[in-house]
From TrEMBL:
<feature type="transmembrane region" description="Helical">
    <location>
        <begin position="20"/>
        <end position="40"/>
    </location>
</feature>
<keyword id="KW-1133">Transmembrane helix</keyword>
<dbReference type="InterPro" id="IPR050445">
    <property type="entry name" value="Bact_polysacc_biosynth/exp"/>
</dbReference>
<keyword id="KW-0472">Membrane</keyword>
<feature type="domain" description="Polysaccharide chain length determinant N-terminal">
    <location>
        <begin position="3"/>
        <end position="94"/>
    </location>
</feature>
<protein>
    <submittedName>
        <fullName>YveK family protein</fullName>
    </submittedName>
</protein>
<keyword id="KW-0812">Transmembrane</keyword>
<comment type="similarity">
    <text>Belongs to the CpsC/CapA family.</text>
</comment>
<feature type="transmembrane region" description="Helical">
    <location>
        <begin position="173"/>
        <end position="195"/>
    </location>
</feature>
<dbReference type="Pfam" id="PF02706">
    <property type="entry name" value="Wzz"/>
</dbReference>
<keyword id="KW-1003">Cell membrane</keyword>
<dbReference type="InterPro" id="IPR003856">
    <property type="entry name" value="LPS_length_determ_N"/>
</dbReference>
Length: 235
């Protein structure tokens, strides 16, 4: 028996299995909310900005060639900031129980486009720890870079902060719930389509015609309660 399901039939099927679809939707959304809120550890992000010049400011404006030279050195500074030379001191100063390699994975160093401003971003489960690492990395770099590369003008523009109003960057609970809601709808509709498509029970005269392969001369309508009562009284 060939099954063809139209959009109207699928909508009717979804409505017929509204309880099942609602259960799947609520289950997925609830499970996602519980896992995101209670089981996924929050990750916080703290960042500090530093300004790097290759010359000590003497009140004279830097020429374009000096600025271009500074921009070309930004990548070098980024590597130095995440090197064991800097991070070993950060670990010692903060008494961290980690290694320079593991600490480097928590740190990302980026530069603002066409500028000498460098962002040091640290991600950690503890916001205060993330802010402390970001600030200490900037301070150690500021004190050591003059020896490493003859750079004597590093300024910390904005230190990292650890205020209570800062929200974790992971997990994004509202986004997770929205994704779970969409996924719940898709799974519910897919389940309904699956059940309808593989349901081989006979429901209409069209199904009977396709099943036995001969025309239908007539069919018996179900009797109403009044008709059943009248037939019983005539006995």
């Amino acid at each position: 028996m060939e099954e063809k399901i139209s959009i109207q039939e699928l909508l009717r099927a979804v409505k017929k299995r509204l309880v099942l679809n609602s259960f799947i939707f609520v289950l997925i959304v609830s499970a996602t909310g519980v896992v995101s809120y209670f089981f996924l550890p929050p990750i916080y992000k703290a960042s500090t900005q530093i300004l790097i010049n290759t010359k000590e400011s003497t009140g004279e404006q830097l020429n374009p060639q000096d600025i271009q030279t500074n921009l070309q050195l930004i990548n070098t500074y980024s590597v130095i900031m995440k090197s064991p030379v800097i991070l070993s001191q950060v670990i010692d100063n903060l008494r961290l129980q980690t290694t320079p390699d593991l600490l480097a994975k928590k740190i990302s160093v980026t530069s603002e486009q066409n500028s000498q401003v460098v962002n040091v971003v640290v991600e950690d489960r503890d916001l205060k720890k993330a802010a402390a690492i970001a600030n200490m990395t900037a301070e150690v770099f500021q004190s050591d870079i003059s020896v490493l590369m003859n750079v004597d003008n590093v300024t910390i523009l904005s230190p990292a902060i650890d205020k209570t109003y800062i929200k974790p960057v992971f997990p994004n609970i509202p986004l997770n719930i929205v994704i779970a809601a969409v996924l719940g709808l898709i799974i519910g509709i897919g389940m309904t389509f699956f059940l309808e498509f593989f349901d081989t029970t006979v429901k209409t005269e069209q199904d009977i015609r396709e099943l036995i392969g001969i025309p239908i001369l007539g069919f018996v309508s179900p009797a109403t309660k009044n008709e059943k009562r009248k037939a019983f009284e005539k006995r």
